[in-house]
Amino acid sequence: MGLPAYAFDPAEDTSKEEGARRHPRASVSLTIGLSTEHNFWSGITMNVSEGGVFVATHQVAAVGTVVSLTLFLPGRPEPLTALGEVRWTRPYGGNDDVPPGLGVRFLEIDHAALDAVRHFVESVRDPLYFET
């Protein structure tokens, strides 16, 4: 992956602050691949920011697990790659409106990939809803 544009510094961790968000995020459904030393699986993102992604998946990974990510952004011929850490998990609870999955924070992501994520988040618009 080369030199990371972003490497997580634990001293900057604000994730423990309730409701704290350091980066704007886009609510989107994108294909994402995840792998660990022993497993590979795919999922769908529910949101993405320059800080990380939520991956809707039934695959279980423990908090603290380091994963390699392969994210497919629309309009880009090649997927983006990053290294991330599982920060939280949500098991399936029987409610289809609340998908199970993993919150993954980027640990390492190169400059081009980070710029692509920033541009994508800035360009995505929330869907419009109309009453009928």
Describe the structure.
With 132 residues, the protein is mainly beta. The protein has a single domain (27-123), classed as Beta Barrel (Thrombin, subunit H), CATH 2.40.10.220. The chain contains one helix and eight strands. The chain has one helix at residues 111-123, and strands at 4-7, 25-27, 31-35, 40-49, 52-56, 66-71, 80-90, 101-110. Strands 3-4-5-8-7-6 form a six-stranded antiparallel barrel. Strand 3 and strand 4 (40-49) form a beta hairpin.
Architecture in CATH? Beta Barrel
The proportion of residues in beta strands is 35-45%
| Main β sheet profile | 6 strands, antiparallel, barrel
Specify Rg, calculated over alpha carbons.
Answer: 15 Å
User: Averaged pLDDT, please?
Assistant: 80
Which regions have little confidence, pLDDT < 50, spanning 5+ residues?
8-19
Shape by Cα distribution: globular
The CATH H-level superfamily is predicted glycosyltransferase like domains
Total number of distinct structural domains: 1
Instruction: Kindly state the percentage of residues in helix.
Output: under 10%
CATH class: Mainly Beta
Helix/strand-derived category reads mainly beta
How far apart are the first and last residues' alpha carbons, in Å?
A: 49 Å
Taken in chain order, the helices and strands follow as EEEEEEEEH
Oligomer: single chain
Summed up, the helix count is: 1
**CATH fold call:** Thrombin, subunit H
